[in-house]
Amino acid sequence: MTRVLSIVLLASSLTSHGQDAPRAIVINDSSPVSSPPSYHRVSSKGITLHLVKFNSRDYQLTVVDQKNGPSSEWRDSASLGKARKAYAVINAGFFTPQGAPLGKLITSGVSRGENNSSSLGSGFYFSNTAHAGIARRASMNDVINKAKPTQLLQTGPMLSYHGAAVSGLSNERSRTRSFLANDGAEQWLIGYAETATLAQLGNALTGKKLADVTIQNAINLDGGRSSDLWISHSVRNGKKTFRALWNKPVRNFLVLEKN
User: Fold this and answer.
1) Which has the closest alpha carbon to 139: 128, 152, 129, 130?
2) Cα 26 from Cα 10, distance rounded (Å)
3) Among 32, 77, 83, 117, which one is most buried in terms of CB atoms within 10 A?
4) Nearest to residue 228, comparing CAs of 205, 198, 254, 204?
């Protein structure tokens, strides 16, 4: 979408009678304007996906972590989203049986957790005031030191990277899945898969154009009984919740808010 802004200025010019007459000067400002967040239900490779599309120029994902463990502040995505008047909320990273974060995270500038060397920490989401992205674990220290992210969530496995399939994804344990994906730039998707293995989900996302977003990078979030996506009425076609009755409380969330 492109916004064309016309500004009309009145200047003075002399008429033949020596009187001032108004003269219009029109300045056209053509600059891109992103659409508000929107909900999309799509199918890819036989997998049903529920997606929230947003542009990171105008909206951001905030990492909200419960310092005292799962359900110590928020019982689910809906309660957190309504309290913060968010656009959408999805469950985020993995956590230990004791409720500690299983991986590095930064929430509004506060660092918690430790580097997770397993496949469940093979990548990370990060953002600062200028940029948001998905990257592999090997670059995490460089990103932290150079980009100074205010938000960071280590999770995994990676499902797609730079438009290429990720090898070694498991084709066992079909279950609900939560994930993040982007086009390598400013178009993002928050995703909930109804049921899929990791390999099936990677295949359904890699290089596909879903909700008009051509996916370059995608990363898995905690899934199964942790999968919990809430979408507010402020999202176009929204006001939806995807959460099973048998879900368990989670440690942290990603909250979609205005920049």
Assistant:
1) 152
2) 9
3) 77
4) 254
Of the CA atoms within 13 Å of residue 178, those in its CB half-sphere come to 24
Half-sphere exposure of 45 (CA within 13 A, CB side): 17
Cα–Cα distances in angstroms (integers) from residue 239 to residues 50, 120, 129, 168, 231, in the given order: 12, 30, 28, 36, 5
Amino acid 55 reads N
How many C-beta atoms surround the C-beta of residue 26 within 10 A? 8
Question: Hey, CA dihedral for 151, 152, 158, 161, is it positive or negative?
Answer: positive
Q: Which residues lie below 8 Å from residue 15, measured CB to CB, with a gap of 6+?
A: 21
Q: Is-contact 68 95, C-beta < 8 A?
A: no
- What would the DSSP string read from start to end of 194-206? EEE-HHHHHHHHT
d(CA 80, CA 74): 6
pLDDT tens for each residue of 33-91 = 568 999 999 999 999 999 999 999 999 999 999 999 999 999 999 999 999 999 999 99
Query: What is the three-class DSSP state of 123?
Result: strand
pTM of the model: 0.87
